[in-house]
Fold:
Amino acid sequence: MPGAGLLRDGQKLLIPYTLVLVVCAALGAERLNRNAVLVAAALLPIALMPDLALGGAGRLRPVEYPRDWDVVAARIEAAPGPVVSLPFGAFRAYAWNRRHVAIDPAPRYLDAPVLVDDTLRVGDLVVAGENPRAAEIRRQLVAGQPLTGVRWVLVQHDAGGEAPAAALAGLQLVHSGPTLSLYENPGTVSAARTDWPLPLAGHLLALAVVLVAGWLRLGRGALLKSRSRP
Structure:
């Protein structure tokens, strides 16, 4: 069904409800006793998710990433550039995570753009992804060509497969560990980091909104007090 992929991440559908809930909760808090609001705020998470306190009946347990991840992350941070994560797939089942299926952590663990397979698979139906760079990587892997169009190639040995030798041709091995190997393209140059202005602008805008809202709130309170005086 066209557009059905939008329903994969159901939490996105809660965004409008969250906005309404925040506004309604703030308006309701003004009309309730302060102590009652504090008690309700403390009990609400427990009432909504009673099994969270028990860690999902013991099924939720913390795991520690292998040291290879920190070594690779530091190496890439020192020379940032696009990364291809192999095997080329969106999901992993690591032995150190008790073979639980999880999304590839590389895009979140590494401080660099990571190319992963964004193909949507629903049973036997395969829908091509939308990232043209990921599509090019997929084409090169199928054709047995080297991945020389990126700065780094990350091979995850415990992710359920190995990288084809042809994909690593011409690349330099800079780290070899029990769980990860990192290859560098010697023909690329580190790009300057230019992604910080946009997040900074977003934080400054959010701060400005909070300051303006606080100023309006204080101004309104002062105006009401001045009007109430004889």
Summary: Residues 1-61 form one domain. The first strand starts at residue 83 and ends at 86. The mean pLDDT is 80. The helical segments are 15-30, 34-48, 55-58, 67-78, 106-109, 132-143, 197-228.
